[in-house]
Amino acid sequence: MAHRRGFTLIEVLVALMIFGLTAVVMGGAYLNVLNSYEAAERSNRNETEVGFARSQLLVIADLQAAQSGSEFDDGDRHVKWTAEAEPTATTDLFTVTFTCVITDQASPAPRTVTENFMLLRPTWSDPTARTTLRQNSASRIALAQGKQPQ
Known about the structure:
This protein has one domain (about 10-140).
């Protein structure tokens, strides 16, 4: 009886098939990692520009100027932002819808980022509305404390 010294053709083909499947799975995982890095880089780049635009909004003392927004260039990108501010039932507190449009020369379509947040801005309030809101708040507090008849 002779001892076998090598692999059969079927064993070699099965090993090649396993190697090929492993290579395809590993290649797909590698591409997913690369795509994730690119998405994170784009997100960080957008966050930097949106953060700068948001900081411009936060230093504006005039409501009309804040709502008309501004624009600036950041390298090969153009950023234009606007804000819609609505007063709330709390004195000097505004609900702000902040929209930032980023146009990149390398990309045909602009990216739009919209954020909603609350902002305390005494300089944006109408003095008459502020007085009315404060009187209403004082009345509610007095009523809750039992100092004012219902």
